[in-house]
Amino acid sequence: MSVRHALLAILDQGPCYGYQLRAEYSRRAGAAVNVGQIYTTLERLERDGFVDHRGADERGHVYWGITDAGRALAARWVAEPDEPGGRGELARKIALVATLPGIDAAAAIAAQRDAAVLRLAEVESAPSDSGASSDDGVSSVILRAAESAHARAEIEWLDAAAAAVAKDPVGRTFPLSVERPRRGRPRTGT
What are the Transcription regulator PadR N-terminal domain coordinates in residue numbering (predicted)? Predict the structure, then answer.
């Protein structure tokens, strides 16, 4: 999942400071991200006109807000299906999108499912390699079978994700946390 796009989707909920964005990303996507990457990404997003500074609080936390261009980019990211490949990345994207109020997670899941169905149809309708050498034919059959299995598994997983979102379309979302995240490294066992 693109950290850049995920930060924009989170900022669409309201202004945040760097450590807050890190905490929101972690609790929504189920993955940790280095705080340095957060700040580097924010600087690039600011350079490109997708975010801007929104002032600082009494503790010196610099808040970032999303611009109209950033809001449009985040909406496109949510709506467009991801390319096949990194399933963990897609799972994190869907998990994050499902927690954000005001985002149509069902539509994002449906778009991804439609893309997987189309990919499956293309794989299954591709002509067989009957004219290839026996080695090429076997590898082609194996690769097509793998592509087909991956597409079927993705469709099944997306159906389960859609069912989870449909069970409680509002209760699954939550606003930005008001709890200040701890700075520094998390504690390990004592």
Answer: 7-74
Q: Which tokens is 20 given? A: 């807050």
Q: How far apart are CA 119 and CA 147, in angstroms?
A: 9
- Residue that is written with structure tokens 């149509």 in the block: 104
Burial of residue 21, with CB atoms counted within 10 A of its CB: 0-12 exposed, 13-18 middle, 19 or more buried: buried
Q: Are residues 96 and 171 in the same domain?
A: yes
Q: Which phi and psi angles does 53 have, rounded to 5°? A: -75, 140
Separation of first and last alpha carbons in the chain: 33
Find out whether 94 and 104 touch, Cβ atoms under 8 Å: no
The Cα 12–Cα 37 span in angstroms is 19
Does the reported pTM lie above 0.70? Answer: no
pLDDT mean across residues, the chain: 84
Domain count for the chain, please give it.
2
CA angle 33–39–41, rounded 5-degree value? 80
Do 5 and 168 form a contact (C-beta atoms < 8 A)? no
